[in-house]
Amino acid sequence: MAIEAIGFDLDGTLVDSAQGLGNTVDGMCERLGLPQPGKALVTTWIGNGIEMLLTRALAWAGAPSDDEYRARAMAILSDCYQDELLSGSPLFPEVKVTLEALKAQGYDLVLITNKPSKFVPELMHYLGIDHLFTEMLGANDVAKIKPHPAPIFKILGQLGLTQREFVFVGDSRNDILAAKNAGVRSIALTYGYNYGESIAHASPDAVVDDFAAILPVIETWKND
């Protein structure tokens, strides 16, 4: 059965958001009078959505755990992230040209990210790739985020696809687990953010070192 659509994660897959997210967390901590973890550590916290990013940052900094403090911290984190959103999330090499090639071959391209939905359209438009995507799902568009299969199941339903007609591309174990939980094939990228672990340990169906290497994998699978 032919592949009809390809889904992509965002942070660590399409965009290198580590610097922007590092600056975001450091900015929040500075405003709260907390120690700043820095980009290298924040990179190991990326992938489970903004709520978990906040949880990890506050726990690391030894911050108060009450709801009022957390709400204040979240408001500051969101403000800091808005400031860093565009300048701190450049495309990885070969992403745009590869997406254009896949689109030209007739595939529907879909974005499935754990990033808050309100940030997604502006960033994708700024990057000049929003027009390539048939659907874009953020964290607020689904009841459960990755690694839960809900986002992938939602896309399969919207596009009327079987599991064999969809492939998901990501850089972390959450992406690969979401694909496995949904029963679709996965391609893992080695250059992203996977908590300091080799993405091969998540047992994806294929592993590639650069974004353009997705093309020959899809070519091999397209009628499988």
Automatic annotation (TrEMBL):
<keyword id="KW-0479">Metal-binding</keyword>
<dbReference type="InterPro" id="IPR041492">
    <property type="entry name" value="HAD_2"/>
</dbReference>
<feature type="binding site">
    <location>
        <position position="9"/>
    </location>
    <ligand>
        <name>Mg(2+)</name>
    </ligand>
</feature>
<dbReference type="GO" id="GO:0046872">
    <property type="term" value="F:metal ion binding"/>
</dbReference>
<dbReference type="GO" id="GO:0006281">
    <property type="term" value="P:DNA repair"/>
</dbReference>
<dbReference type="InterPro" id="IPR036412">
    <property type="entry name" value="HAD-like_sf"/>
</dbReference>
<feature type="active site" description="Nucleophile">
    <location>
        <position position="9"/>
    </location>
</feature>
<feature type="binding site">
    <location>
        <position position="11"/>
    </location>
    <ligand>
        <name>Mg(2+)</name>
    </ligand>
</feature>
<dbReference type="GO" id="GO:0046295">
    <property type="term" value="P:glycolate biosynthetic process"/>
</dbReference>
<dbReference type="InterPro" id="IPR023198">
    <property type="entry name" value="PGP-like_dom2"/>
</dbReference>
<dbReference type="InterPro" id="IPR006439">
    <property type="entry name" value="HAD-SF_hydro_IA"/>
</dbReference>
<feature type="binding site">
    <location>
        <position position="171"/>
    </location>
    <ligand>
        <name>Mg(2+)</name>
    </ligand>
</feature>
<keyword id="KW-0378">Hydrolase</keyword>
<dbReference type="InterPro" id="IPR037512">
    <property type="entry name" value="PGPase_prok"/>
</dbReference>
<keyword id="KW-0119">Carbohydrate metabolism</keyword>
<dbReference type="InterPro" id="IPR023214">
    <property type="entry name" value="HAD_sf"/>
</dbReference>
<protein>
    <recommendedName>
        <fullName>Phosphoglycolate phosphatase</fullName>
        <ecNumber>3.1.3.18</ecNumber>
    </recommendedName>
</protein>
<dbReference type="InterPro" id="IPR050155">
    <property type="entry name" value="HAD-like_hydrolase_sf"/>
</dbReference>
<keyword id="KW-0460">Magnesium</keyword>
<dbReference type="GO" id="GO:0005975">
    <property type="term" value="P:carbohydrate metabolic process"/>
</dbReference>
<dbReference type="Pfam" id="PF13419">
    <property type="entry name" value="HAD_2"/>
</dbReference>
<comment type="similarity">
    <text>Belongs to the HAD-like hydrolase superfamily. CbbY/CbbZ/Gph/YieH family.</text>
</comment>
<dbReference type="GO" id="GO:0008967">
    <property type="term" value="F:phosphoglycolate phosphatase activity"/>
</dbReference>
<comment type="function">
    <text>Specifically catalyzes the dephosphorylation of 2-phosphoglycolate. Is involved in the dissimilation of the intracellular 2-phosphoglycolate formed during the DNA repair of 3'-phosphoglycolate ends, a major class of DNA lesions induced by oxidative stress.</text>
</comment>
<dbReference type="GO" id="GO:0005829">
    <property type="term" value="C:cytosol"/>
</dbReference>
<comment type="pathway">
    <text>Organic acid metabolism; glycolate biosynthesis; glycolate from 2-phosphoglycolate: step 1/1.</text>
</comment>
